[in-house]
TrEMBL record, chains A, B:
Keywords: Metal-binding, Molybdenum, Oxidoreductase. This is Sulfite dehydrogenase (Cytochrome) subunit SorA apoprotein. GO terms for molecular function: heme binding; molybdenum ion binding; molybdopterin cofactor binding; sulfite oxidase activity. The keyword Cell membrane does not apply.
Length: 363, 363
């Protein structure tokens, strides 16, 4: 189990699942590695010697190949990209308030983070081996072996070929300008911008080009949007892929006591897929009226967008809601009850924190 | 003014704005031309002689050119595509129930339709003239002159270059296997799949490649998502482009009297942008519980998706809600009040009809 910074809330140690508090994410374009959420599926973190690590690329390709880390570095150009990763279960706690979600990690607001990732483009590797015309999907297999499927199974998911060939998808060996840490997938992990974090496979060992999506547990059974009342089964529901527009308040903290009067409220918004965030609204009257937040520039095309607004808080308790709009006028739904699903994924309902404002006499 | 089939509701005659009833759209993969909505901005429909019509392509291109209809046909391959067009104001009546929208056409459910369009790819034309590396947007100018901007102005909007170069964007001269009708933009109109209908310029006369979006009224002032309380002004709010996920009930009609018992309810869903519809839910208890509808295959990648469900209606009045999910787990918001905006665009709130079911004794 990795050393845990004091700041992280550890939901489980094997697999290691941990998230930072929301306030730790505020105002930092890049999330420090020590504050980046951990979402794992295997009880043990793989420990891989980079000197002997290899990446096998096979399946529907013309020239199956095996690359060492050195070969990847020599053969392909390095690219970097600032990318926000968000777990499909981020904000699950809000869904669990609607109806219980037994056995699911109760993620708060912190299963999201942004880093600068550097490595090679998956597209360059795929072009090098030559993709068969019948190929439709690219399976990504990690060294982590999960016990969740019943019989132990290496973590494997896939992305459609068109996304795999997009220039933003990286096989990354660097995170925030430092070598990728073991806990985050060293020596090489995948980074799939705009998609649920579960597709950004860590400890990558194998890439198999296929003519169908992965049949692995984490794509065929888990990470699927199920209708209420359904239980997970292979192929049931809809596989989650691109993210829908989401946002959260990062500061002040939920439940914070703050002086009444002008109060700066900040957060992030993330459009998902290939959309962008065009507007963020904040309300202190439950959504009856909205104030538009100021949007910061993005650190990168695939990164979250910070927003901020100054609210004039009266003495007493205020509930602050926030919601984001994407570039297709998609907007977050109001109520987690509209979104509740048996695995507790994709809570994109309006964000909210409760603030307690005190007057001068209380200060 | 075109002859109006009896079935259309005419909102205004100059400009001619008309829509079919919802039931006329049900169960038809392709909407008959006579039932296709009309959304115009000029008091007069342009009447263009195809024999003398020309298309000018200029701006940031290497070889500005002028094409006759014959030249377009000879020089470029014909492609066809089944595409659903939806007006940004479709379902506006639902927003007008929240708060009035003076001066805006009160579209019901019918400002949407699907046709097979044939013509040449805009991308092929742009590649032929050679796009300047500094280009970012492609302006499309029609022959229709609108008086809405104050001073008369030809209808002009733009799409970003990457969309303009996408293979699905057509310069179409055929609609449902017949020559494009004058009322729908003859001799040549643009079809921009996945985007608000307002970008699919009719009576196309000029294409200007630019390094900025169009500054024409219908992109800089109209067709923008404004915050509540704002009035239209150049650059204010957010230009509408790709559509967000939407759906409607098409049959039975709103207010219909039907026999109690098993009742087939059908409708369409449209994901918008480049997303797809993955699920449609129907509720008879205001969204407390949902039944998943059956999804029909799509007639084309860019067409709507029909859905159907059999509901067991009790005697009395039922309100049937429907909502669609897209491939990024984006879902329609519940309430039009969440979406109300001063120009009354993009009402993507849950669809609904009220049905009155009568028993055997009433039959």
């Amino acid at each position: 189990m990795p050393t845990q910074p004091a700041e992280l809330t550890v939901h489980s140690s094997q697999p290691y699942n941990a998230e930072p508090p929301r306030t730790a994410l505020a105002d930092l374009d890049l999330t420090p590695v020590a504050l980046f959420y951990h979402r794992n599926h295997a009880p043990e973190t793989p420990r891989i010697d980079p000197a002997t690590w290899t990446l096998r690329v096979d399946g529907r390709v013309e020239r199956p190949a095996t690359f060492s880390l050195g070969a990847l570095r020599e053969r392909f150009d390095e690219h970097d990209q600032v990318v926000t990763l968000q777990c499909a279960g981020n904000r699950r706690a809000g869904l669990a308030e609607v109806a219980e979600l037994p056995g699911e990690t109760p993620w708060g607001p912190g299963a999201v983070g942004t880093a600068r990732w550097a490595g090679v483009r998956l597209a360059d590797v795929l072009r090098d081996v030559g993709v068969d015309p019948a190929a439709t999907d690219v399976e990504l297999v990690g060294a982590d072996v999960s016990e969740e499927p019943g019989a132990p199974e290496p973590y494997a998911v896939s992305v459609p070929l068109d996304k795999a060939l997009a220039p933003e998808v990286l096989l990354a060996w660097s995170m925030n300008d430092a070598p990728l840490a073991e806990a985050h997938g060293a020596p090489v992990r995948v980074v799939v911008p705009g998609w649920i974090g579960a597709r950004s496979v860590k400890w990558l060992e194998r890439i198999t080009v296929r003519d169908a999506p992965s049949t692995g547990h984490f794509q065929a059974v888990a990470y699927r949007l199920l209708p209420a009342g359904a239980s997970p089964a292979p192929g049931r529901g809809v596989a989650l892929g691109p993210l829908a527009v989401n946002a959260d308040v990062l500061a002040p903290d939920d439940g914070a006591e703050v002086p009444a009067g002008p109060t700066r409220v900040t957060g992030y918004a993330l459009a998902g897929g290939d959309r962008t965030v065009v507007r963020v609204d904040v309300s202190t009257d439950g959504g009856a009226t909205w104030t538009q937040a100021d949007l910061d520039p993005q650190a990168g095309r695939w990164s979250w967008r910070f927003w901020q607004v100054e609210l004039d808080l009266p003495v007493g308790t205020s509930r602050v809601h926030a919601r984001a709009w994407d570039s297709a006028a998609g907007v977050q739904p109001a109520d987690p009850a509209e979104l509740w699903n048996p695995k507790g994924y994709v809570n994109t309902s309006w964000a909210h924190v409760t603030l307690h404002a005190f007057g001068a006499a209380d200060g």
